[in-house]
Amino acid sequence: MNKISKWQRQLLLTIHIMFSGIMLGNMAIFLILNITAAATSEPDVFRACYRVMHILADSSVRASTIGAVVSGVLLSVLAHWGLVRYYWIIAKELLTLCAIAVNFVGMHVWSLKAVRLSATAGLDALQNPEFTANRLALFVGVAFQIVSLVAMFLLSVYKPWGKRAPRSA
Predict the structure, then answer these.
(1) How far apart are CA 21 and CA 152, in angstroms?
(2) Do 117 and 131 contact (CB within 8 A), yes or no?
(3) Is the pLDDT of residue 73 over 90?
(4) Who is most buried in 113, 127, 147, 152, counting CB within 10 A?
């Protein structure tokens, strides 16, 4: 028996998909900005890429992460899925914990550091080992987020592994 109506479940699912799509879109933008920053010879473009990443990290990335997590938990609890009833949901929850850490901490810290280092040194920041390590961490974080978000989308569509066996008392 569902705890919410079909219409309410569909509305909540729409909200969840919307926020999840925004998260994936944010990471696509981060990837494009990372590539642009790596390929440009214009100091202003270089600095602007990192500034935009930091603005997104502190706004849209955070908001979409909160929206996706809250709507996902509500969907699991209020619909028939449950939080630990299906293996695919448990996998999504583990990936979500990683996404929260990377989105709330990683993207903020890495983009802020890139903004600070590029603002003071411009393209000369490329010679700084601290900047190079930070840029690599930012790129790896973005790549991880894209892979994990796509994996979460695939888990939601295909729902592999089925239901967990009930525990015997």
Answers:
(1) 11
(2) yes
(3) yes
(4) 152
Looking at the predicted structure, is the pLDDT value of residue 108 above 90? yes
CB contact at 8 A, 34 and 88: no
Asked whether the predicted pLDDT for residue 66 surpasses 80, the reply is yes
Instruction: Give the 3-state secondary structure of residue 163.
Output: strand
**In this structure, what DSSP letter does residue 122 have?**
G
Please choose, from the candidates 118, 93, 107, 109, the residue with its C-alpha nearest in 3D space to the C-alpha of residue 145. 107
Q: How far apart are CA 151 and CA 132, in angstroms?
A: 28
| Residue 2: per-residue pLDDT | 56
pTM attached to this predicted model: 0.90
DSSP 35-94: HHHHH---HHHHHHHHHHHHHHHHTHHHHHHHHHHHHHHHHHHHSSS-SSSBHHHHHHHH
Burial 82-97, CB ≥16 within 10 A → b, else e = eeeebebbeebbebbe
Q: Over the stretch 27-65, which tens digit does the pLDDT of each residue have?
A: 999 999 999 999 999 999 999 999 999 999 999 999 999
Q: Are 100 and 65 in contact (CB under 8 A)?
A: yes
